[in-house]
Amino acid sequence: MPAASRPLAPTGFDHADPAFLADPYPAYASLRAAGRVLYYPPSRQWLVPHHADVSALLRDRRLGRSHLHRFTHEEFGRTPPPAARAPFHELNDLGMLEREPPDHTRVRRLVAHAFTPRTVAALRPYVTGLARDLAATLAERGGGDLLTEVAEPLPVAVIAELLGVPAADRPLLRPWSAAICAMYELNPSQETARRAVAASAEFSAYLRALLADRARHPGDDLVSALVVAREAGDRLSEAEIVATCALLLNAGHEATVGSTVNGWHALLTHPGQLAALRADPGLVPSAVEELLRFETPLQLFERWVLDDIEIGGVTIPRGEELALLFGSANHDPAVFTAPGRLDLGRRANPHVSFSAGIHYCLGAPLARLELTASLAALLDRAPGLHLAGEAKRRPNFVMRGFESLPVGV
Prior knowledge:
The chain is of the alpha+beta class and 409 residues long. The chain has helices at 18-22, 25-34, 51-57, 86-92, 103-112, 117-140, 146-151, 153-163, 173-181, 190-216, 222-231, 238-268, 271-279, 284-294, 326-329, 364-381; strands at residues 38-40, 45-48, 63-64, 143-145, 300-305, 309-311, 314-316, 321-325, 386-387, 392-393, 402-404, 406-408. The strands form four sheets. A five-stranded mixed beta sheet has the order 1-2-8-5-3, with helices on both faces.
């Protein structure tokens, strides 16, 4: 499509503007009013802001997380990534999130057993006990940074326990994850790429050593299970196992950390809703869903256009990229009554925070367990939890969250 004929996103949508990052929801409303799909030149993406379209397109097989199962970079009109970034792409691109069937199906099938309802239910005592211990420690200290004291340790420990990462090595995971996930922001800088490449190389080397150890000394963990599956001829290469473990370790805690801190910031700045939750702990399950909707930790999910597609009268040709705006979809008044209002008792809540279709979040049941346990533990062990300083928001758009959330008890 000629550039001059592309419907453009309103000027209020600016992913680098601090005012937009602080509160993107007015800009999302302008996007929804402007159309169903709008072009954003700074990232060369088509923005999709409406819930109905986001939900449908997540399931549309004319789109894909990757194009390499059908086209080379050159055939698709794209430039291959620089050779210097190979460690990042080797780790990232072989993960099931970045693959399409049949490879996606093959890899997902091998790890899905670790996230069945039975497996998650078996983890409940561990998750609940750890959440209560962390909340109790925060209360005993008189408060602290909710991010580092509660939000980070819980999901990092849980996913590391599931995969079999030794406790002594777990402090390595968060810095590696942060450096790698920074590449998912729009237009990452050269310095961001350099850090991601270094972290990817270190993370890959660590995971290969862990795989070698589990091959010699298998345990009752997912890494051991994947090694055994490979040795049994299940066509999972070492590089695929490494990429899968990295994805699970990153995705298994990154969004949950963001959801926990985003959620508590929303509660602490909406005292009426927090008081209602304290008065009725039975609201915790619906509160978790509403907090996931209200401050979505992953604001967008990208898809390549594999075959020409028409959205609202606009034809998007093969080779273009869509940005499905989860944050906007979750605030669409066509689906959510008074979407700008935090309503912990909201019953109809079809948010898209866990995506949909074949890439629906495999760890959603575990994430819900962690968020529920953490919220309930803090309500119980720190009933007077309150802000004790200014929360510092991360300068990110795609992965929305905070650098710190100081609280008192």
